[in-house]
Specification:
Elements lengths: L3 H13 L4 H24 L10 H25 L10 H33 L9 H14 L3 H10 L2 E2 L5 E2 L8
Antiparallel strand pairs: 1-2
Helix pairs in contact: 1-3, 1-4, 2-3, 5-6
Amino acid sequence: MWSAQDVARDQVRRQANGLDLAAVAEKVAEAAVRERETGEQLRRGGSFSEFQTDPERLAAIWAAKHVEWRRVRGLMAQAGWGAYEPERDTEGSTWAQEREERREGALAARAAFEARRREAADELRAELWLSATPGRLIRAVADRAGLGPAQVLAQLAERVVVGEDGTVSVPPFTPSR
């Protein structure tokens, strides 16, 4: 769900909090080394020591971290900050807010999906084979109502009443759209 840039921006924003310009410069240098190492390792097809299943994604994340650390260093130098404060970084704050909105949207979509899945679990889909006489009767009722036979049977099933003694009945009704 998260792009390499999203991951890098989030991690840098958290890790940079409170760091001075010298410490940020060290992080830029470290990210440059890691970007180069992961890129070389990827080109050689070797394995990574990190607990990462996708070497291409790891290389992309380190490249994005390098870009983000350089952005933070430039911002601090330009603004003359003694230490990085995420809430003062308007661009970083905008990205963080957008990430949070996407996360909330994804969580809401997942909750809606789960609700539909739970509801669907209560649904019953059945294939019904009727003998000729009841089949003709259902088709005739469906034709008069302008419905399909399955729709008439669904309306019939929705009106089923089970008595205390276990008897099943359907009160008279007129199928409708």
